[in-house]
Amino acid sequence: MDSDKLSTEEVIAYYKPELEKLAVYIPWLKAQKGKKTATIFKGEGVEKNSLTFPIYDGTLLGFVRTAQASKLIDRNYVYFYSRTGIRSQKEEWDFIQNATIKEMSDLWKIFSKYILKGMTKAGLWSEAVESGIFLELLLKMKDIIAFWGKLRKENERQG
């Protein structure tokens, strides 16, 4: 759903419930920023050519499961990247910093990329926690909802 086609009230009503489910992980994401949240299992006595795989922190898996259950995960996030020309994590960070309520659906598309690609790319979820991109996305979306929700309430009191 594109936020630019919705009223402020509709954006808040649509995104806030899903964001609140994920916001409970913000303290954990803050504490884990810059830290590894996965280890690589290599096994005892396993040959060098054997498959290795990450073992994730339990809280990270809870966060990912909550995100995957969200109705806002967008499998078409790739179109956002082709439309905007964003190619690097730095460009994602710049986009996040400058996002407004109109880009709320685009913020979820960036979030979706990390959740969905992490299902097939080992370690991506952990990298997103370590780099702080999950945290930054949630904080930005929370700030947008809080700002516009507060502004709306003030207008209702004055009106």
How does the major sheet shape up? Answer: 2 strands, antiparallel
The number of distinct β-strands equals 2
Strand content: 5-15%
Runs in which pLDDT lies below 50 for 5 or more consecutive residues are none
Question: What does the model show?
Answer:
The chain has 159 residues and is mainly alpha-helical. It has eight helices and two strands; from the N terminus they run ααββαααααα. The chain has helices spanning 8-23, 26-32, 58-69, 77-84, 89-98, 104-117, 124-131, 133-158; strands spanning 38-41, 53-56. Strands 1-2 form a two-stranded antiparallel sheet.
Features:
mainly alpha, 64% helix, 5% strand, two-stranded antiparallel ribbon, 159 residues, 8 helices, elongated
Summarize the model shown.
This protein has 159 residues and is mainly α. The chain is built from eight helices and two strands. Strands 1-2 form a two-stranded antiparallel sheet.
